[in-house]
Amino acid sequence: xxxxxxxxxxxxxxxxxxxxxxxxxxxxxxxxxxxxxxxxxxxxxxxxxxxxxxxxxxxxxxxxxxxxxxxxxxxxxxxxxxxxxxxxxx
Length: 90
Prior knowledge:
Layout: H1 12-29, H2 41-58, H3 64-73, H4 76-83
Helix pairs in contact: 1-2
């Protein structure tokens, strides 16, 4: 296996649990989980997880099977990342 390549065996169950949790969060709140300081630690953890999926996808390391599952469960998972405006400077 190439460094950085994701497996779909042992960690797939754990990955699926994260996907389900993100989908439940979106269904409940209407938004993706946040990574902001001060939010619930569980939400922040999910925010980091979805961000890691985006990053892996953007550099070609997210398995197409996982991309399809993300698209089906959380259609906004990558859209908002790609189309958000520039950050405000303070």
